[in-house]
Amino acid sequence: MEIQDYLRILQSRWKIIAITTVVAILGALGASLMTTPIYEASTRLFVSTSAGSSVNEVYQGNLFSQQRVTSYTKLLTGETLAQRTIDKLDLGGTAAALASQVKASSAPDTVLIDVKVQDPSPERARDIANALSDEFVVMARELETPEKGGAPAARVVVEQQAQTPSTPVSPKTLRNLALGAAVGLLLGIAFAVLRDRLDNTVKDRRTVEELAGSALIGTIPFDKERQTQQAINFAEGNSSSAEAYRELRTNLQFLEVDNPPRVIVVTSSLPTEGKTTTAINIALVLAEGGQNVCLVEGDLRKPRVSKYLGVVGSVGLSSVLAGKADLDAVLQPTQYTGLTVLASGPIPPNPSELLGTETARQVLADLRGRFDYVIVDASPLLPVTDATVLTAMSDGALVIARHAETKRDQLSRAVGNLHSVGATILGTIITMTPSRGRGVYEYKYYYDTDKSLPQMQPAAPAQPPVPQPAPQHQAPQPAPQQQAQYVRDEYPPQPYGGDPQEVPAYQGAPAYQGDQGQQWYGTPDHYGNEQQSGAPMPTAPRRTRRYRDDQEPWSETDAPRDHTQ
């Protein structure tokens, strides 16, 4: 295994590692809480010899004291001293049990001895340490005094009395938690690697391509909505599932550019791997791309297409193969544009024999001539041979494998069944992949609608023309007098210095906007002639009116000036 493999395991099996670590930490915490607290009291003893009169004698006395220190540490943890301490304090228990609670140590090249006593009670630990030290002073004097009397060769002095400890020395909760976390992490990694080695399901591209011997052309993410609504509405669908099928459509169309497959069987190793849902949505996504698609319900044992798409399933492929209906009579259009369904029909007693007839081959050939694509939802490969028979008559098969459910040996056996009849495997598809994780693309980010931008409203359906009542002969009514709309004259200033003025527009003529060749169109025209409906408007000279430069009101004597272009 390479480093990338271990990283993949850590990423995919992180739950095992996390659970194991948490369990180890909780175990360490529980052990700490259940352990009886132990307190420790300590005293310090000083060992000395009689001072000499010379430097050499002092040096020899020091060496003698250091040698005695080593021996005294053994005596302090012995049962003899422990029994004398028990007798002094009137303690229960045995001398061996008390001796196990005593620790004595000394630093190298010193004459100091540290005595430590541990006990569940802090007061008793203090009393035992002090009593033990006092008894050892007496015991050392007895041992170092000659039999004939005289001064002892060495003496022991209690240099420091024991105090009542305030905090326990055991258990050390923080240390136990850290140790539990480290042990749990190591065990979790070991369990994750072991679990991955023992897992024989397909979960990645490399495994699927090695077992199937063909390229992986699509991965379909897990979508809870597909459990209740198997067909995706691609006209409104921009989910990750919809985009995955669009990518699958692109890969399918470029499998063989010169001779693309048109009759495609969709199958799987075992049921419940998403075969039927995948076949339905492949047909829908091809229809969305403008193709004329026929979806054939080729699973004559456990049909589901007619149920999922809401078409009649009582007549269909088995009816045609048995000679009880014509193909034209059983092809059913659906609510989806470009998609036609050929249902399974009544379930026959011998589906494999019925699908292997020459009539079935002729039906597929006839559908090939009528439609751009024929998608056949076939039975699983391992339980029955129906899919193998259909694949031999088609351009190839798409093999479905469910992520972390289809086992490697199952996929290998299914592919072997197809190869045994010389069928073509166009590609493999992994369904129900995790929606999050390594190698998963989030399509939704690119297809979310920006609500801040103007939204296109759907076109209203065309309404039939409302019939108009027959015209009745009426006396012509005079045209209503319209208020003249003033527009700005866009002519350049006049030689006499007049500025452009606002002028009234003629009845029926639009307000002038910009330079449009300075043409005016209206009904009636500027000469009072009515225009025929639909007739081109002749170019007419533009007539404008001005107020007089002296700002006098308009009068009938002021004739309008004509400007002809």
Explained architecture:
By secondary structure, the chain is an alpha/beta fold. It folds into three domains: 3-35 and 172-198, no CATH class; 38-163, 2-Layer Sandwich (Alpha-Beta Plaits), CATH 3.30.70.1130; 205-433, P-loop containing nucleotide triphosphate hydrolases (Rossmann fold, 3-Layer(aba) Sandwich). 37% of the residues lie in helices and 15% in strands. The protein has an eight-stranded mixed β-sheet with strand order 5-12-11-6-10-7-9-8, sandwiched between helices. Strands 2-3-1-4 form a four-stranded antiparallel β-sheet. Strand 11, helix 17 (408-420) and strand 12 form a beta-alpha-beta unit. Helix 2 packs antiparallel against helix 7. It is rod-shaped, with a radius of gyration of 51 Å. The relative contact order is 0.09.
